[in-house]
Each structure stands twice: as C-alpha cells, then as structure tokens.
Amino acid sequence: MPILYNTDVSMHDRVDSCIQDDFKHKAIEAAQEAFYTKRAALVDEEPDWQGIRTAAMNIRDDVSNNLDFYIKQFAENAAANGVNVHFAPTADDALWEALDVFENAAAHFAVKSKSMMTEEVGLNHVLEQAGVKVIETDCAEHILQTAGDMPSHIVVPALHHTRDDIAELYRETYGYDGDNVPENITHFLRRLLRHQFLEAQVGIRGCNFAVAETGSVTLVTNEGNGRMVDTFPPVQIVFVGIDRIVPTLESLDIFMALLPKSAVGSKMTAYFSVDTGARRPDEVDGPAEVHYIIMDNGRSSLLNTQFQPMMRCIRCGACLNICPVYRHISGHGYGSIYPGPMGLVLTPQLAGYDDIDDLVYACTLCGACSEHCPVRIPLHDLIRDHRIQIVEQGKNHKIEVPIFKGLQLMWSNVDVYTALMKIGRPMMKLFAEQGGMLGKKTAWMPVLSGWTSSRDFEVLSNMRFRDWLKQHNADKHASACSEFAAETDGQPTADAELADETANRSTAAEPADEIASEQEVQ
Amino acid sequence: MARVTLDEFLAPISKQLGHSQVPQDVKPFDYQSEAPARSTDGLSQPQLIDKFADEAEKIRIHVYRCKANKVAEVVAEIVGKVRASDPVCSEAGLESDAVGIVYADDERIDSLKIPAALEALVAERASVEDASDAPVSTIVSTRWDKEATLEQMAELCTSSRFGITFAQGGVAETATIVQPCSAECGRAISLLPLEHIALVKASTIKGTMGDWLREISAARIEDASTMPSQFCFISGPSATADIELVRVEGVHGPMFVHYVIIED
C-alpha cells in the first residue's frame, strides 16, 4: 500500500528518530510559524471568514450527499468535451488505466506536476518499471525524486532538506556548479527542466477541484510547473479523486478564497487554471489528447458514516501547520503520505486499521486542527472515532484489555481501591529515585516504561486528597470562627473576604509547588 | 474496452449513500442566500481599480495606469529599460545582447498601436552601439502565429524576454487577471518569457474571482463555444518557497509581471 511507507520500522521507532532530528524540528517550526502568522493576518482582514468556511462546508456536504449524481454529471460533461474518461475503483485500476494510456501513445517520457493522488497509488514506481521515465517538476518533488526520499508535508514536501543538502545533491546528480543560495538552485532547476517540459510526450497532473457543471479540471500552483505540464506534452493524464468535485464554476470562488490562505498564507497563488477539454483544433499549444482517471480507492467508504466530513478536505495543510504533534514527530513520523490530523483521519480509511500501527494515537485531541480547518472538518472528533472503532473491532493492543479490566475492578470497589492505594506508596517508594520520582530506573518495566523512559512519574502522596480536603475544611472553619469573633465590632466585610483569599492561597501553596517541580522535570 | 463503466463505478457509491439509483436531478446549491461578505463588497469602480493596483504592488507586480493612447508608449518604455548587462538573462538562460518580444495576435493590441511602437523601437536600437550599461542593441518583436508549430512557438517564447497578452479582466480582491487562451493567444505567451506584460481594461476589473466565474459561466450557458480550453487566473510572478521557505521568483514561469491598466 503506497499510502504507508517505512512500515518495516515501528511507529515508535520512526517517531523516536524524528524527535532526534533538530534540523527537521527547526524547519517545521519555521514553516508552521510563517504559514500560521501570514494566514492569521489574512483571516483578520476578511470581513466574514467564518461565513466563507460555512459556505464551503455546505457546498462540500451537498456534493457528498449526492456524490453519485455529481460524479456522473462531471464524467458525462467531460466526455462531451472530448475527454477520455477512465474509472478506477481502486489504486490498481488507476495504474492499469494510466499504463494503457502510455501504451496507446507509445510514450516513454513524462513530466509530472505535484499530485498527492499519484503518490497514493505509487504511480512513479510502476511507470518506471514499465520503462517510462517520469520527471517530477515541482521544485520540492524534484528534490525528493532526486534524493529518493518521501514527502514530509503535503504543501512543502521537501521541508526536511537543507539548502546545503540540496546544492550537493544537484552537484552530484546534475553537475550544478553554483552555491547554496536557494535562488540560484531554483534558477538552475528552471534551466534544467525547461527543455524536458518541451520534450515530454505525456503530462501527468492532479486536480484541485473538478467542476461537475462543465466537466472542467483545475490546478492551483505557484511555480508554474503545472501550467508547463498543461501546455506542452501532447497527451495529458489528469488524476481526479472523487472527493475533488465541486458543483459549479461559481463555487470555485469560495474554495479559492480559503485554499491559498489556509495552505501558505497568501491571498492567492500565482496560477489557478481551469481546463475544459483538449486544445481546440486551431490552437497551437495545450494537450491534443486528455484523459481523466477518476479514482475512488476507499474514499466512498467515508460516505454516509461519521467520517463523511472528511470528504470536504481541500488538502490545504492548515491542520498540519497548527498541530503540536506534527511539530514534534514531523511528517515522516506518521509513515503515511498523508501526515498530520487530516492524515490520521484519512489514512485508516484508505489503508485499513490492520497496518497503521499506532497512527491514530499521534494526537493529543487538543482540537486546534478542527478550529483551523477551512471546511470545518471536526478532525479531532474523527480521530477519536477511529480509536473507538479500533477498540470495538478488537484491534487495539492486547495488553490494554487486562489493564483496563484491572483498573475497572480497582475503581468500582472501594475496598480494593483503598487497599491498593495503601500499598501503592511504599511499593513506588521502593523504585523511586532522588526527589521522590519514578524515573529511568524503572524503564525496564513493561507498560510503565512507556512513561518513565522519557519522563518522571510522581510517587503517590502520603495523604489522600479526601483526607487533605477534610483537614482543610476543618482548618478553614476554625479560622473563619476566630475571624468572625474579631470582626464583631464593625470591620468591613471586604477585609474578611481578602483574609479568606489569603488563607486560600496559603493552603493552595503545597499543590502549586508540586506542579512547579513537575514542570521542571519536563 | 473500458475496464470499468460509469455505471459499475457508481453502483457501490450509490449503495453506500443509500440511493437505490443515481438521482436524476438534485436541488442546485443556493449561493445567494448564504453569500458571505467580501472585502470588495460595495466598492465603486474607481475604488476597485485602486484596490487592484494596491494589491498588485503588494505581490511585487509592476503597475502602470494610463489612457489608451499612451499604452504603446508605456509598453515601449518597459521594454526599453532592459540593460545589456542584466544578470537575470543568463540566470534564465537567455541571450543577454538581444531582447525578444512575443505578443498575442489580438486586434485590441493592434488597435493600441503596440506592434508599431515595438517596430519603431527595433529600428531605433539597431543604430545604438552596444556598451555594458547601455540598452540592448537588438530588439526583435514577433506576433503569435497560429499557423506555426508548437515547437516553433515554444522556441520563440522560451527565447523571448517579454510576452504581451490582453487580459479578459481583473479581480480587485487579489490583484488577479483572467487570461483565457485561444488560437490567437497561446498559453506559452504568458508562461515562457522571462517577463509578462498584461494589458487590463480598467472597466473589466471586478471585485472577486466569483464575479468573473459567474460571467464566464453565463456566457458558456448562452454559447458553449465561448468556453476556452483553458483560462488561467494569474496573480504575480511564478514563485516557490520550497528550499528552506525562502521565496524565489521566476521558477518555471515569468520572473516579473507588469500590469498596464488602461483607463478607458
């Protein structure tokens, strides 16, 4: 399954190695800050950002509820425009259809503009095996292809490479003789790729929005490589996911008011092209032959379930740019080509629960993603729904069952609870390190090590909270009585309140100290 | 020959949706009742033009505003500014001692007398001695030729410094131009040359992209042949931030974009 990669390493180990990578962290932090700050400024400028979000959500839901109708309308209009329409229920079907196009055109050289869907089906690998040379033309994708690497972000996929890395890579592979200045490397790429656009026999591209009303496909790009792919190769293949459909030309406006701002924090991208059919007979440039491969590949399983809102996703990456977990484990930690919150929802749906390891647990359920999602997908709720389904289907970790049975016994029976708490403290004391914390010394213990191998765990307190509260209330009552006695000669009550507050603060001092010490160890 | 037919493809999707068959028709989405407010709402035409120009400058587009009878002069001035020693030429893989211009075979461009102004520039420059900081000595201007081959036009555009097109209109909100392609105005003109000069009539500047999409859609419903094989919304130079998030302009498309707003 090309959606998942690096699966011979466990998620735990993948995350571990990503957490060690300081450059990756700084790069992601910088990207998150930059995209987020610029986005926030643009959102503030919008008179009705929330209204645009709601409109987009409603349009998307409307299409999802009648997706069969809209797919049919899109496919029939495309065919009427002279487009060859292919239907692919699965990734394999999509690959076969693409191979057919290459065979019929006797083509062996293709240029490609960035498309997550072709990543999803693993197109490049299959084409290369069939003897077709495929060149990625998006700057970041070209870097990844040259390095033989995987994308780490859906919008800026080569975020994890340094300028030195990239300059060196092009020196070795293509004889680049310049320095490490991004501008110079990029302009080298311009010269390197230009004649390849002109020589390629097939252009392969994705589609941001497919317009049902007209059978048109659209592409949002900044670099212009998408337009190059649209202009020169005589044959064009467009990969269209069934979740890319919008009803009308007019509706594109709402989505384009959201997408560039949410994705990269700009008001608009340099190019947004709307293609309807092949080039007309009297035109000089543009593809003479156009193929749409319309693919399902598991998407329709979202329909009519609690996961249907995921069909709204416009692949902007706003949820990645705000996610605290993404920030730490980085795109490669997830091991899915769809990382971050949107990936946590989509990946299990496309790849199934069996092969995804601990993926859906890479989330703190903080909800920042749902708040920032331009099309209001309740991402963190859906992530929790995946967890619930995993448990309901019995696909959770086997050890969880006895642990939770034990906890259930403890919390549902006062005697067991009291007894365990009594022996808990001396038991924990046995393994505690200086400062009264369970630390690395206990990292050999199964289950517990998940926490103590990287953080300290506090030993149970001497006093139960229940006892402490009883004591506290008794003290408070006693002091209130003595104050009342002192105030009988007409002190203003405000003073009494103040005294009360001070008393509260001093009794609260103990727990506050504990929090502070915990923060230090973190 | 198709492995999977449309009906076979739709059957499981209809089933998942609980539809016994694909609906014959659905209620169209009502855009008007929910139309969210936009920053260009209620602006007068002069205000829209100002907004268009302001937004353009924010994204590093060179903006010129002039009457129709001055357009040829402005275009000649943009072209005439190029220095022979300009380092971006070699970066973009262009010859540094000549400036090539390709323009759309568009009667609006002809009626603005731009080809004549460029020809005059060509003649004038032929007599200038080349020097390192001098204007380039050779200027070649060529009209897009719909009888030519793709290879010829690609070669022409890729070796040109400037491409000149007439935009269908502008979008004030985002400083975007609407550029349809046609036999007379190939896609390559606004894509391959190092600089793109777009001519925009001030009266065609609308508030949002939606305003233009509605117009294009209405025209298509009236007459399907008005729908171009591609129309492109262009907002500034081609750019990337893929290497360490450093913004670089001039990736595969133009490095510089000029809007000449014709105040009609």
Describe this structure in words.
The complex is a heterodimer of chains A (522) and B (264). By secondary structure, chain A is an alpha/beta fold. Chain A is 54% helix and 10% strand. Chain A is built from 22 helices and twelve strands. In chain A, the strands form three sheets. In chain A, strands 1-10-7-4-2-3 form a six-stranded parallel sheet, sandwiched between helices. A four-stranded mixed sheet of chain A has the order 8-5-6-9. In chain A, strands 11-12 form a two-stranded antiparallel ribbon. The C terminus of chain A is likely disordered. With 264 residues, chain B is α/β, with parallel strands linked by helices. Chain B contains nine helices and twelve strands. In chain B, helix 4 packs parallel to helix 7. At the A-B interface, helix 2, helix 3, helix 4, strand 1 and helix 5 of A face helix 1, helix 8, helix 9, strand 9 and strand 10 of B.
Give the SSE layout:
The complex is a heterodimer of chains A (522) and B (264).
Chain A: H1 11-20, H2 22-45, H3 49-65, H4 67-80, E1 84-88, H5 91-104, E2 109-112, H6 116-121, H7 123-129, E3 133-136, H8 139-147, H9 163-174, H10 182-199, E4 202-205, E5 210-211, E6 216-221, H11 225-231, E7 235-241, E8 245-246, H12 252-264, E9 271-275, E10 289-295, H13 318-322, H14 324-334, H15 340-351, H16 368-372, H17 379-392, H18 400-411, H19 414-431, E11 437-438, H20 449-452, E12 457-458, H21 465-487, H22 493-521
Parallel strand pairs in A: 1-10, 2-3, 2-4, 4-7, 5-8, 7-10
Antiparallel strand pairs in A: 5-6, 6-9, 11-12
Helix pairs in contact in A: 1-14, 2-12, 2-14, 3-4, 3-12, 14-15, 15-17, 21-22
Chain B: H1 6-17, H2 31-34, H3 45-58, E1 62-66, H4 71-80, H5 88-91, E2 98-103, H6 107-111, H7 114-125, E3 138-143, H8 150-158, E4 162-166, E5 169-171, E6 176-180, E7 195-201, E8 205-206, H9 209-222, E9 230-234, E10 239-240, E11 248-249, E12 256-262
Parallel strand pairs in B: 1-12, 2-3, 2-4, 4-7, 5-8, 7-12
Antiparallel strand pairs in B: 5-6, 6-9, 10-11
Helix pairs in contact in B: 4-7
